[in-house]
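so im writing up the methods section and need the DMT family transporter record in one place, dumping it here so i stop losing it
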Amino acid sequence: MATFAILFTVIGGIMLNSQAAVNGTLGRNIGVIEASFISFFTGTGFLAILVLFFGQGDLLAIFDAPKWQLSAVFCGTLYVLFSVFAVPKIGVAATSILVISGQLFMGLIIDHFGMFNGAVIPIDSNRRLAIFFMALALFFVYKGNKRGIQE
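--- predicted struct ---
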């Protein structure tokens, strides 16, 4: 089962970057906010079909969920909006490494403090090294962008 989780996560990353590239292009044609809206609107329709045929949860339980948990909607919306804005300006690779850097940073903070009822995993030397290599990757991707623009 862990193999499927890893495979699905990699496929999810591929889809995320594909979405960013397509949405960035769409954003240039119809507008950043409009492209973000279309992305969520069509995604909502697709998910509605999945819920209808495969859903096993209870959508009405949303009224019993703690209200802070609904903030995830805004996080996802802002991610799409920001990526639609960024991709045409800095490219998919730079946008992706910046997103991954933000994810790593926030993941380390969430783990370190055990936020959202998670396990407490302190920031140790291995995690500090991960931050260093992420910053190094960001440097090289950005440097590659500048070289590509000058050519």
